[in-house]
Write a structure and sequence with these properties.
The chain is α+β, with helices and mostly antiparallel strands. The protein is 42% helix and 12% strand. The chain is globular.
Length: 138
């Protein structure tokens, strides 16, 4: 049983953004400071990646730990109400992510997944972005 009304739940869910989220903005700001130039949400690529670095043929997905099921993360919990609904929702999300990544790999694109919880520590995030081979601006 849900603790809030259907209308209030709908209002809550309508506030969850699909793009230009705080974690995305953190990653974009860091990339810009590192000297990278990029495009956002290219519709012609599978999965519509959050950040696209065409020069390096690399895409970056900034995933929310809850929605995309970050393994071992405390933010990837399963709600206690409507458990079967949520399990199916998460299964579809992860399947869609895997399909998009496979299509990108097949097309020759490198992929980086940055998890929402990783954006809380910019020094570690910078290390992650720098440690990727062939990932340095000219």
């Amino acid at each position: 049983m849900d603790r809030i009304s259907k209308e209030h739940r709908s209002w809550n869910m309508s506030r969850i953004r699909g793009r230009d989220t705080k974690p995305e903005k953190v990653v974009r700001s860091l990339l810009h400071r590192m000297g990278y130039r990029f495009r956002l949400h290219r519709r012609d690529l599978p999965g519509r990646p959050d950040i696209v670095l065409p020069k390096y043929r690399t895409v970056i997905f900034v995933h929310g730990c809850f929605w995309h099921r970050h393994p071992g993360c405390r933010y990837a919990y399963t709600p206690r109400t409507r458990v079967s609904f949520w399990k199916e929702k998460f299964r579809r999300n992860t399947a869609r992510d895997a399909e998009a990544r496979a299509l990108l790999r097949k097309a020759g694109w490198r992929q980086v997944v940055v998890w929402e919880c990783q954006t809380r520590h910019q020094d570690r995030l910078a290390e992650l972005l720098e440690s990727i081979s062939g990932y340095a601006p000219d």
